[in-house]
Design a protein that fits this description.
The chain has 1 helix and 21 strands. The protein is mainly β. It has a single domain, classed as Beta Barrel (Porin).
Length: 438
């Protein structure tokens, strides 16, 4: 009996197995059970440039080395200012900027040597026992373009590149009022009033407020008040001719001035004498000055209200060996309404510019400038530091530069001028140098 039961069980089990096998033959085969998943490997470290690679960020540097020779007629002047002796000088700059034509917010920052105390001459003299030079923030600014048409309106805030147009042919610029190295601090509004799609005609306006010096340390002891400036420039471009009209209102120029005084039976001020802040050593001091006691000096007017006009025109020419070339002329006139004398200045430049890195003749500029600037035609602190070293100058400049490669350009300049005081001192200056930017 037990044998029969065991045989029956075996028979039933065999039938079940056969039925199961047949059913599986008619159905899709199931995938084999997956093997155990190995532990995930750690994600690779992100590349340091993965973020920058997707943004229009430009990192750049500029190395300017030049040998400077200066020959004043009055040899004693050579002993007064370390910027007025022969030597090898350098200007070093490093920066980063975010520029995107479609972005609402962009901006940049830059560090530079030699910003103290003269903002118009950021060159430091080499040969100081191999000691390192000191860097400072030269630019830090934000551009905001709130409209859909990004070229119509934008605002700039911070210590910004020069917002006012001063010429744009080659490397020649009108520098009677602003040195090339000045980066003003404040806020400006740039407005494109009209333009053609082919950029042949445009009308633009830029205006803003700029702070020069917050002055607080002489309260109750001398002249105080923030030195500031408001300005506006209207620029019209029609094909190859560009015209601009500017107005600059400088306020509280005499802040910081203090002189000892005694009023019999009333009061006495015995503080040391100090000049207006912008007339102290280190700045370009070629404006007219008035002595108010001791060694204290002030400007002839506490405000400078200056109007300027700039005109530029160019013409394509073909000259032997130069190929496609542009001849250009740049004129500049300035008038100070706040003073009675030494209030006018004018400058004229003619030059050639052309060349192409893809051709045998690389980009170059060659120009001649003649300038006569009376002492108060501009604020000397921020005026050209090469031709005249401020204002109160009459003379000429011949300059040229040539871009040997995309990142390397030698240049040379010669200056022959009559300088302060009252354009009575002959001064010859020559320098040559190289610029390497990357």
């Amino acid at each position: 009996m037990r044998v029969q039961r065991a045989a029956a069980i075996v028979f039933v089990a065999a039938g079940i197995l056969c039925g199961s096998t047949g059913a599986r033959a008619e159905e899709p085969q199931a995938s084999p059970s997956p093997s155990p998943t190995p532990p995930p490997s750690p994600p690779p470290a992100p590349a340091t440039t993965s973020v920058l690679a997707t943004l229009p960020i430009r990192m750049y540097a500029n190395v300017n080395l030049r040998q400077d020779y200066q020959r004043p007629e009055d040899k004693a002047d050579l002993l007064l200012d370390p910027n007025q002796i022969d030597g090898l000088l350098t200007r070093l700059r490093f920066g980063m900027e975010f520029k995107d034509a479609k972005a609402t917010v962009s901006g940049g920052l830059r560090v530079s040597v030699g910003e103290t105390p003269n903002p118009a001459a950021p060159f430091v003299r080499l040969g100081d026992g191999f000691r390192p030079v000191t860097f400072g923030l030269d630019q830090f600014y934000v551009d905001v373009r709130p409209l859909k048409d990004k070229s119509r309106l934008w605002l700039s805030l911070g210590k910004m590149p020069m917002p006012f147009w001063r010429g744009d042919k080659g490397t020649a610029r009108a520098e009677m009022g602003w040195d090339d190295d000045i980066s003003p601090v404040g806020g400006v509004v740039n407005l494109n009033l009209y333009h053609k799609d082919d950029s042949s005609v445009s009308l633009d306006n830029v205006g803003g407020y700029f702070i020069v010096e917050w002055f607080r340390q002489d309260r109750f002891a001398g002249l105080v008040g923030d030195t500031w400036m408001v300005a506006d420039q209207l620029k019209l471009k029609v094909h190859r001719v560009t015209l601009s009209a500017s107005f600059y209102d400088w306020e509280n120029l005499n802040s910081g001035a203090r002189a000892p005084q005694f009023t019999p039976g009333s009061s006495a001020v015995l503080y040391p004498a100090t000049s207006a802040f912008l007339l102290r050593p280190g700045f370009q001091r070629t404006n007219s000055e008035i002595e108010i006691g001791g060694t204290s000096f002030i400007f002839t007017s506490n405000v400078f209200r200056i109007a300027e006009g700039i005109a530029q025109g160019s013409l394509p020419v073909t000259l032997p060996w130069l190929g496609h070339t542009e001849a250009f002329a740049l004129g500049h006139y300035s008038h100070n309404f706040s003073v009675d004398q030494e209030k006018d200045g004018w400058s004229g430049t003619v030059g050639l510019t052309g060349g192409d890195l893809k051709r045998k003749l690389h980009p170059y500029s060659l120009w001649f400038t003649y300038r006569k600037v009376e002492a108060d035609a501009a604020l000397a602190t921020f005026a050209d530091s090469d031709l005249g070293m401020g204002t109160d100058v009459k003379g000429f400049e011949i300059s040229a530069d040539y871009r040997l490669t995309k990142n390397f350009a030698p240049y040379a300049s010669y200056f022959n001028m009559d300088v302060a005081p009252q354009r009575s001192t002959k001064f010859n200056r020559f320098f040559f140098g190289v610029i390497w930017d990357f």
